[in-house]
Amino acid sequence: MVEGAEQTPSEYIQHHLTSFTKPIGEGAFWTLNVDLLMVSILLGIVGCGFIWWVVRGATSGVPNKRQAAVELLFDFIDEQAKGIFHHGDRNRFVAPLALTVFVWVVLMNAMDFLPADLVGLATHHISEHGFRYVPTADVNTTFALSISVLVLTIVFAISVKGFGGWLHELFFAPFGSHPLLVPANFLFQMVEYVSKTLSHSLRLFGNMYAGEILFLLLWMWAAHSSLSGDHLVGWFSSVLLGLGWAIFHILIVLLQAYIFMMLTVVYISMAHEHH
After folding, report:
1. pTM metric for this prediction
2. Which of 19, 48, 150, 211 is the most exposed place for a label (fewest CB within 10 A)?
3. 104-122 pLDDT, tens per residue?
4. Is 199 a residue of the active site?
5. Is 207 a catalytic residue?
6. Within 10 Å of residue 157's Cβ, how many Cβ atoms?
7. Within 10 A of 127 (CB to CB), how many other CB atoms are there?
8. Which residue of the set 91, 159, 177, 199 is catalytic?
9. Catalytic site residue 132?
10. How far, in Å, CA of 132 to CA of 146, rounded?
């Protein structure tokens, strides 16, 4: 749908929630959300590049404001990891991972502050049928993140307990090693793995998707008021409601990134524990 054409409310929302996809192979069973991949990779480069830039210019003397802000972020993430992870040197992998996850998810969440119509105007030449720019408002992104954490927990569990120890725990914990309890143990372990992955991804997705919908509804309400002739109501609603929700959404953006980061550290810490 061409940006600017007359649309119904449902078409307007659907247009902004449609991804630029590219089928892979015959039958189009697999598709890539090109827009989400582009934005996610770009934000990852921006986040890592910013931290590298600050660290590269860091001094041992009095830090500037930029360095002080990043040092506060480092200390905050390290303290959170320190309070959860007690199974070795957290600075080798866990704390840097937590920092990377937090910064990356914050940047992806913060894309929700960009006006949908302005982004649509800037990207209509890429795909006239839709371009999504909030990666965490799409369940594919959050599932990819949570599945990556799941793989890391399995890798850590095997590295700490050995492959045999991990398999033993998979089939003989938590109910015991009696042969009749093996199916129950395995089912319990699978439910735990699946439930952690689902909750990890759907919590982030649900909050960001709801925020995206609310932003679209607010802009649509303001536009409808202006088009109906009541320009004052349109301007007032767009500024007041949009600003109010944006301020509240700052808390959601930071809080959801913090929760996702904390759960990542918690799940990796749990992978080190023996049952």
Report:
1. 0.88
2. 48
3. 999 999 999 888 878 888 8
4. yes
5. yes
6. 21
7. 17
8. 199
9. no
10. 20
